[in-house]
Amino acid sequence: MIDVNAPTFWSDLVDVLLVATGQTLYMVTLSLLITIVVGLPLGVVLVGTEPGGLFERPFGSRALGIALNRTLEFIVNLGRAVPFIILMIALIPVTRLILGTFIGTGAAVVPLSAVAIPFFARMVEIALKEVDHGLVEAADSLGASSWQIVAKVLVPEALPSIVLGVSTTITSIINYSAMAGVIAAGGLGDVAIRYGYQRYSGIHMVAVIIILFVLVMILQGVGSAVARKLSHRSSTPAESPVFRRLLAREPRGG
Amino acid sequence: MITISSLTKSFGSGGPAVRALDDVSLEVADGTIFGVIGQSGAGKSTLIRMVNQLERPDSGSVTVAGRNITELSGRELRLARQQIGMIFQHFNLLNHRTVQGNVELGLEIIGTDPAERRRRTADILELVGLGAKARSYPAELSGGQKQRVGIARALAGNPRVLLSDEATSALDPETTRSILDLIKTINRELNLTVLLITHEMEVVKRICDSAALLERGRVVEQGSIVELISRPGSRLAGELFPLGPVPDSNANTIVDITFSGGTADSPVISQLARRHGIDVSILGAVIEHIGGNQAGRTRLELPGPAHLHALPIAELRAQGLLVEVMRGQAA
Ligand SMILES: Nc1ncnc2c1ncn2[C@@H]1O[C@H](COP(=O)(O)OP(=O)(O)OP(=O)(O)O)[C@@H](O)[C@H]1O
Ligand SMILES: [Mg+2]
């Protein structure tokens, strides 16, 4: 039980929260970077190796394309199906192999990336499939290679949706990072469990919830704003975010 | 410039296969505009997509500028495609790039250096009348302007051939005319060979030198417009001069007389009336500007069976007019 009236209570609280927020941001940022670096190409390959895709026949072999597609599908589905808490424990040997240790904030990056990569790859896949096939044909008619089509058409056109996918992915990484206390990674989730739950401090609990909420709101807001900025589809002033906010503030007339 | 020989293509595995193209052969002469017209599902898109191999044929071949493009693949095919521009019904512009960026796309693919890219893009945008819009995004343009960007993009790499897949079908009539005129202009100024497909006779009328009629995957008729107009029973010419179905007429004769080129101002009716004393009634007349020339077709009703009018008809034919007896022949 924590004594709210202890002279150091509030300064301790701030210290704990600062450290935990730092740990959460560290885990989330690093996992996110890895997720994007691995998940984006994974999404491209997932779409590309489908029947009729750009990389239908890698090295001229359709069999290889099919095998690649099936394998990646399997891995992605597996990653999505296993509950995070189990994945985290199951990955302990892998983490130890990569980092030499399996506990601590840094070590949490491995399972967090492992859970986020399949999630993000699916979002990339969906975003890429939304790109009008006519654009691919136009690039084809100009004599573009498959890689040029990916780099100049598919990914840039899908970028607004991919950015939205990134912000959804961040939210889910933050979500999962709350469980990382299990492997002594610390973070805000860990504070909520150790202080809020085990030591009955409602104040810690509320503070963690507020910080997480603000974090997620900011990230979602930034994500949506960037996506909107990148998407040049809605360019009339009435649709621009600034204009809409102005309109919203306008008092409603009769 | 483009030789299409015996192209065949079927779609569908499992169920009954759709024969999209059935032994199609066409010849598009250098520097001309060739229109393929047909109804929805006739196989027009399939045909034009064969010319740059967006679609592979089951059999047959397509030669563009002396190269059999159906034999190419990989890098060779990509290089060949750079010589063949294409524009699309729905424009297919990249939303994330400005007008300038869209036009530069083809040049980036070819590997043109940035300075040259900018110079070339500025020139070509000027040509299509979009010099002032270089920094706009496609979402900020009208349909007609988007198609101009499409044309600029297709032309940026200096192709020999332009393919147009229903490029004006999504546009209103006035914009359609301005785009067609632009295509005609670049055809003349750049000596570009154009193969276009359409379901609108207006398009053929306005800019085509030659045309083919495609029906259920087969070419039922083809030729230069001049030739088609003077070909008896031509269905394409019938479409060019929409006089409608021949009316049921008791015992009288109905003839369609087609004027074109030098015969456009023959005083046919007064000739029939005065010289032969025939009571002519005019059932319909269409005058069209076709490929810049005046051409027209008049439908006349003459009293009594056709054999009574054998002499005047022969006389008109001797003047170079196309005279088709639509009814009253057998009597
Ligand atoms: N990829 C495809 N798979 C299966 N069938 C196809 C495919 N492409 C075309 N077809 C079929 O081939 C036939 C010809 O199609 P095509 O698109 O060439 O017609 P079109 O003349 O261009 O018609 P429209 O004016 O409607 O565009 C149609 O019956 C169509 O259903
Ligand atoms: Mg079509």
Q: How many DSSP H or I helices of chain B?
A: 11
Q: What count of helical segments of chain A does DSSP give? A: 10
- The CATH architecture name of the largest domain in chain B reads 3-Layer(aba) Sandwich
Largest sheet of chain A: none
Count all strands of chain A and give the number: 0
Secondary-structure element string of chain A: HHHHHHHHHH
Distance between the termini of chain A: 57 Å
Second rung of CATH, namely the architecture of one domain in chain A: Orthogonal Bundle
How many angstroms does the end-to-end distance of chain B come to? 48 Å
Largest sheet of chain B: 6 strands, mixed
Strand content of chain A: under 5%
Largest interface: A-B, 24 and 33 residues
State the share of residues found in helices of chain A, binned by percent.
Answer: over 70%
- The top level CATH class name of the largest domain in chain B: Alpha Beta
Given helix and strand content, the structural type of chain A is mainly alpha
Number of E strands of chain B:
14
Rg calculated over all Cα atoms of chain A:
22 Å
Specify the CATH class of one domain in chain A.
Mainly Alpha
| H/E element order of chain B | EEEHEEHEHHHEHEHEEHHEHEEHE
